[in-house]
Amino acid sequence: MTSRPILQQINIVSNDFEAAVGFYRLLGLDVNAGPPGWPPGTGGRHGDVASDNGIQLDIDNAEFARICRPQARRAGHRFLAAHP
C-alpha cells in the first residue's frame, strides 16, 4: 500500500510581517505573533495559527526564515507535507 502525503504545515515568508499578520487576521484567523526580534537581537519575526483540521500556518519574516533555513534567500511561499 502506498501512503499519500498529508498537508500539515504551510509556511509563508513575508517581506512585511505586520501586513501579512494583519491580512490573515482580517480573514478571521487567530494569529499568535511572537515578540519582535525573536530570537533576541536577530530581527526575526514568527507567527503561527493552529487550526481544527491539524494544518498549521506559520508566518515568518525573511530574517527568521534565514535562521531556520539558512538556504532561504528571499521571501516567498513554502509548502511542507509529511507522510502519515
Looking at this protein, list some descriptive labels.
5-stranded mixed beta sheet; globular; 5 strands
What layout of secondary structure does this protein have?
Elements: E1 6-14, H1 17-26, E2 32-33, E3 46-50, E4 56-61, H2 62-68, E5 76-82
Parallel strand pairs: 1-4
Antiparallel strand pairs: 1-5, 2-3, 3-4
Low-confidence stretches: 79-84
Note the overall shape.
globular
From the helix content, strand content and strand pairing, which structural class follows?
alpha+beta
Largest sheet: 5 strands, mixed
Radius of gyration: 14 Å
Task: Please count the helical segments.
Answer: 2
Topology as a string of helices (H) and strands (E): EHEEEHE
User: Which superfamily, in CATH terms, is the homologous superfamily?
Assistant: 2,3-Dihydroxybiphenyl 1,2-Dioxygenase, domain 1
Q: Would you give an account of this structure?
A:
This protein has 84 residues and is an alpha+beta fold. It has one domain (6-82): Roll (2,3-Dihydroxybiphenyl 1,2-Dioxygenase, domain 1), CATH 3.10.180. The protein contains two helices and five strands. It has helices at 17-26, 62-68, and strands at 6-14, 32-33, 46-50, 56-61, 76-82. It has a five-stranded mixed beta sheet with strand order 2-3-4-1-5. The longest helix is centred in the N-terminal third of the chain and has 10 residues, at 17-26. 17% of the residues are buried.
